[in-house]
Inverse folding.
């Protein structure tokens, strides 16, 4: 072991003397575990290196030694170095020592202007969180302007304290399984139990773009969505997903002397969702063939005048949100039986990027339907077999069809009667219902209200 250390030190000195930046980074990156007998002098020398990355890697390696004699070196770097990475690694190195004499130093850095430095100081102090002074210093950060600092403090001191098994997490009410309810979704959700849904995937009616989605103003439209999505939040189980498909919409101009108006629905909706507690996870872009969308650049093609350019809208936004929780996704997965997890795994090819190339679908009844392929992907990626999948704006019911085919249950709500008939056609095409305990049911709001009471 001692011979190995000498060889590592010699190799490090040789690279330092060669002044080869790439080799030096490679060696520092691969130093691995260091014993107490490791010669720290070469690394201490590198703390004055002109390159930020070299200094940061040197601190990171010195931290492995957990050597209290290095405390002054680390404090000097925190106070004088201009690199956020170097300062962060230095605070982390002090915390890693787990030495009570460092508590006051770490408390001092809770007031730093760099949130990364604060977070490392917090991590170092959490070892001593039973100490009243440390606890008081940390809990003061619960209203810190940085959201990451807030999240750590709230989880450590104000979380629900249980990360164990929740017997209700995988369950959903039988009276909601493979059920479609006709009526205003807001009326239906009033009777829907808290935390009863595992996944919601929907595409709301676009603002004044169809005869079934007319609103007095854009504000009224957004207020409507907020009301619905607040209820979706309530009925969603802890830490589970809400996937929202929207896109900007163009309202044609009232006459040649007026301009058309383009409404950024995904972006306006996003801020509403974040305020109500949804956590943003991913943005997926659904890309359609250009030939399938309305041509907006025919005029520009002829005159090519600046300012008049309008690209064809070939994409829609598939935004992924998670109901806020202090638990990691691993907790959600561990609630399931191992066999269910195994059976729900995504086999074969999968979408490795956030650009999904899917052809649109055209339906004889509904003018804006989900492609079955899109529903299949979302259900596979964000739910387990046996879960309850919800679409508050069901349209032709493609999500229900996909859910049944993938061994999930569906809960659909739809206002328009003509689309209810299309849903019946869609879900009846599934061959799986013959083996399914929960045959599809179609209810109105009053029927559903009575079923809930039973």
């Amino acid at each position: 072991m001692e011979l190995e250390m000498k060889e590592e030190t010699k190799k490090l000195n040789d690279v330092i003397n060669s002044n080869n930046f790439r080799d030096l980074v490679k060696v520092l990156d691969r130093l691995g575990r260091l014993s107490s007998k490791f010669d720290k002098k070469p690394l201490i020398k590198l703390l004055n290196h002109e390159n930020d990355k070299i200094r940061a890697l040197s601190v990171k390696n010195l931290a492995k030694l957990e050597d209290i004699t290095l405390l002054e070196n680390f404090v000097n770097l925190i106070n004088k170095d201009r690199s956020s990475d170097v300062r962060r690694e230095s605070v982390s190195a002090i915390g890693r020592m787990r030495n009570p004499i460092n508590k006051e130093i770490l408390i001092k850095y809770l007031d730093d202007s760099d949130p990364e430095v604060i977070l490392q100081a917090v991590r170092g102090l959490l070892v001593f969180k039973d100490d009243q002074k440390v606890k008081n210093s940390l809990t003061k950060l619960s209203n810190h302007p940085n959201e990451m600092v807030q999240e750590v403090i709230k989880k450590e001191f104000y979380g629900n304290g249980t990360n164990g098994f929740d017997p209700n997490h995988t369950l959903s009410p039988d009276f909601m399984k493979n059920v479609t309810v006709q009526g205003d979704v807001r009326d239906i959700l009033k009777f829907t139990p808290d935390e009863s849904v595992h996944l919601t995937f929907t595409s709301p009616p676009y603002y004044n773009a169809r005869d079934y989605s007319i609103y007095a103003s854009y504000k009224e439209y957004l207020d409507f969505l907020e009301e619905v999505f607040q209820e979706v939040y309530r009925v969603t189980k802890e830490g589970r997903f809400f996937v929202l498909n929207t896109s900007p919409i163009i309202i044609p101009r009232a006459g040649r002397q007026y301009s058309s108006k383009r409404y950024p629905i995904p972006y306006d909706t996003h801020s509403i969702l974040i305020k109500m507690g949804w956590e943003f996870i991913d943005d997926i872009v659904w890309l359609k063939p250009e030939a399938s969308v309305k041509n907006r650049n025919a005029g520009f093609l002829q005159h090519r005048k600046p300012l008049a350019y309008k690209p064809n809208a070939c994409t829609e936004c598939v935004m992924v949100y998670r109901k806020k929780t202090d638990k990691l996704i691993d907790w959600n997965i561990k609630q399931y039986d191992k066999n269910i997890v195994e059976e729900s795994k995504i086999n074969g090819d999968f979408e490795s990027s956030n650009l999904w190339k899917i052809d649109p679908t055209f339906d004889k009844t509904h003018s804006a339907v989900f492609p079955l392929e899109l529903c299949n992907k979302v259900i596979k990626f964000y739910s387990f077999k046996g879960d309850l999948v919800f679409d508050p704006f069901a349209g032709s019911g493609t999500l229900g069809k996909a859910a049944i085919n993938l061994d999930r249950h569906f809960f659909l709500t739809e206002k328009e009667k003509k689309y209810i008939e299309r849903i019946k056609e869609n879900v009846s095409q599934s061959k799986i219902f013959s083996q399914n305990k929960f045959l599809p049911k179609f209810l109105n709001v009053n029927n559903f209200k009575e079923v809930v009471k039973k």
